[in-house]
Each structure stands twice: as C-alpha cells, then as structure tokens.
Backbone:
C-alpha cells in the first residue's frame, strides 16, 4: 500500500540530495548522476512509495491511471495538501511537499528538453521551490472521498464532476466524473468546451462517455468532444448549434439528465 510521506521523502531525495538531471530523451535513467523528466520522476517516486501506477508513462495518461487506483481529481484551488500531485495534463507535473514547497524536474542546463550532460549541472534541473500558479488542470489526491450527488442536478450551466458523473451513469459508462483523454483545443477553429478543470483531462485518446454519446448520435466514435460532436449534442438537446459547449448547452444537458435520459 502506498505511503504519501514516503512519496514526499523520495521526491526530496531525487530533487535535493543527489544529482539527477533532466533529459526527455533519457527520461528513465533515474539514479544519482542520471536523467529524468517531470513525469518519469513522479511515476518512479510513486512506485518507490508503494503506489500502483498502472500503465502510466507520461503526463497525458497519469490522471486516468491514478484515478482508477484510489486517487481523486480535484480542482486546483491554490490549497494543495502534502502528497498532492500537481498536474497539467499536457505539459507538467510536480509533487507538493507541504509548507508551501513543491518538488519537480524542470529543464536541462541549457534550457532545453534534451541533449544535455548527465546529472544536474545547474542545481536546478531537478529542484525544490515554492508553490507557483502554473496552469495546473487539477490536483490528484490519494484517498480523497469522492463527491457524490444526491437528488437532481442543479441546473446552473456549469459542467463539473457531478454533471459528468450523472451523464456517465445515464450513458452506462464508468462513473468517475471526468471526461478523459481530450485533445487540447487550438483556440482558432476549436475552443475549449466549458468544462470545470476538475472534470476533464487531456491526452487525445478519447473518453468512453463521449464515445457512447457519439454512438447514440450516429457519429464517428473517437471519444473527443470536438465541434461536430458539440453541434450534434446541441441539435439533440434542441439548443442553438454553434459548436460552443457553453452554459446554455450545459443547462439543457442538466435538465435532460434530471429526467434520467440523454
């Protein structure tokens, strides 16, 4: 069984006690004088601390593997707890140590992702520093009690974990409150759907929930909540088809889900 104190101590060891460098091309060479990147270090330390990380290999599949193994995806509200994993699903991951400090693997000695010398050449390739407001998508917290929804959903136009859980239950897919595996919008042809950051994860592999919705609507099943799928959902719900998964669409969805159907 995993131990959060051991996780914190192992991150301290790798980021402060020994010389461990950063190199994405040699990211599993985790030893004194070796190399890692942000996700390989966190996954390695989790395993050292006795946690089952499943098939986790990088930031994009860390959330799905850990939430299936006792971790909860929570909003990044600026108040992490010791042992929380601070996650941006695409770009970065760190571990909160407590006392306002986090541990992370950052960048190589030349400010590049790969190609530098082995070991920590600057004392900052892996480091401990004060908590900062990187655009974290969530905190992953071990053993946090799941939030449950009793009674009807509040029709407030906010698509958070409660709405997603209800949607998943209605569609018959696993219920975890997260629309997982989404593509990062380019913000030119496709803007981010109005989903609470604690209710979505990225990686591009698609979501079982959205796949089930696409099957119901007769669409190609890629599991991605993109413009075509959003417009089809809007048509199904009888709201304006503008490919914007915003409050009006979410209110219509919540109203429909409160009837026990999609």
Residues:
């Amino acid at each position: 069984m995993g131990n959060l104190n051991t996780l914190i101590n192992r991150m301290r060891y790798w980021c402060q006690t020994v010389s461990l460098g950063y190199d994405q091309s040699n990211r599993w060479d985790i030893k004194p004088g070796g190399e890692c990147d942000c996700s390989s270090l966190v996954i390695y330390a989790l395993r050292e601390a006795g946690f089952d990380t499943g098939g986790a290999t990088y930031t994009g599949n860390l959330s799905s593997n850990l939430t299936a193994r006792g971790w909860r995806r929570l909003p990044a509200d600026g108040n992490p707890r010791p042992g929380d994993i601070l996650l941006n699903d695409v770009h970065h991951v760190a571990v909160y140590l407590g006392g306002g400090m986090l541990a992370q693997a950052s960048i190589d000695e030349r400010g590049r992702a790969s190609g530098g010398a082995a070991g920590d050449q600057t004392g900052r390739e892996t480091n401990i520093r004060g908590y900062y407001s990187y655009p974290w998508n969530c905190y992953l917290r071990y053993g946090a009690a799941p939030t449950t929804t009793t009674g009807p959903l509040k029709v407030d136009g906010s698509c958070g974990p409660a709405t997603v859980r209800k949607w998943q239950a209605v569609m018959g897919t696993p219920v975890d409150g997260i629309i997982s595996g989404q593509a990062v919008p380019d913000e030119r042809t496709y803007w981010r759907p109005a989903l609470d950051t604690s209710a979505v994860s990225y990686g591009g592999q698609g979501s079982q929930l959205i796949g089930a919705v696409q099957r119901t609507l007769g669409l190609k099943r890629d599991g991605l909540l993109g413009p075509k799928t959003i417009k089809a959902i809007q048509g199904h719900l009888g709201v304006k088809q503008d490919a914007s998964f915003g409050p009006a669409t979410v209110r219509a969805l919540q109203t429909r889900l409160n009837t026990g159907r999609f």
About this structure: The beta strands are 21-22, 35-36, 71-74, 85-88, 92-98, 101-105, 126-130, 138-142, 179-182, 200-202. Residues 33 and 119 are 4 Å apart (CA to CA). The two ends are 39 Å apart (CA to CA).
